[in-house]
Amino acid sequence: MRVLGLMSGTSADGVEAVLAQFFGKPSEPRWRIINCFSAPYPSALRHKVIAVGQNKKLSSQEWLDLAEAITEAHVQAAMECAPNGQFDLVGCHGQTVWHRPPTQESRGASLQLLQAPLMAQLLNRPVIHDFRSADLAVGGHGAPLAPALDAAIFGRLGGWRGVLNLGGIANISLIPPRCGFDRFSSVIGWDCGPANTLIDFAVQKISKGHLAFDQDGLIAARGSPDEGLIERWLKEPFFQRLPPKSTGREQFGLNDLENRFKQTLNSSSEDLIATLTAFSAAVVAQDLNNLRSLDLVRPIELLIAGGGCRNPVLLRELMTRCRGLRVLTVEEEGVPLQAREALSLALLAWWHTIRHQGNSPAITGARKGVVLGTRVNPG
Asked: pTM of the predicted model, to two decimals?
């Protein structure tokens, strides 16, 4: 089956589209990427998406206009990726604007903006969307969804294998080995904390909006990270929790950045960006060290995906702090850096169609496994 996967992540950079083909065993599919396409959001749309994720109030009309604009941006990316309509199905996450993990006091919930019936009509293909709700309904976090998909796409090694996505938020998948006692273990994964979100917000603030992000890590490269401050930040409650855990810009957004700015009043702009960049690497390293110290998981390899791969300072910090790991990018496994999540969405849509379980209770904390997504057919 040929499936078109569409994804826009927490960074709200735009839409990543992947046209892929799947066949064979659902848990170990054979797959190939036919085409990829990246479509940046128009500047005004990106700013609005980020603003609503930081609690900006909108009128009912503005919410409607935003959902329609997001849908149209995804449809345009789909048409560019597959101009001849050579696909059977669409898997689309929509744009997450708010995520509320479950607590002891309240159930979890998550809001993705997408007008799926409109998309199905414009593309004249069935659309599978709303991938988090079914897991949330049975007590899960609804995120991260990628670990089970990473296991299916990248497969197993002789030891534990990690897949780290460096989007707005850093999330990691750990895939059990193909041999040895640990081969019976479950795939695990969780949100580690901020990857690019705090760095991007800080660069925008420091440059007064002239820069959107730290291009090639050039600002961080001129500074020195404050290791004492990073150690203090790593003691915050979120970073002490074991999985399952999920987060987003709701927790690591502008308010969080302002609190961290107050602790760096004597730092230069370069040192501040260097500190935030090193911090993003440190939260991943600490999570892996915590699992290792508990004799739970000892990965031998870490595949890295997402926009953060284009920041050489962030990559260098990861390689330095995640000692004992072979660190490489997903490109070396045949997946373009920005395509991993869109490819996963395509796989999720295929799994929905063949009624294959899409979540993993060991990852999300759900009470049971469920098929993910809602199907909308063109009229």
From this structure: 0.88
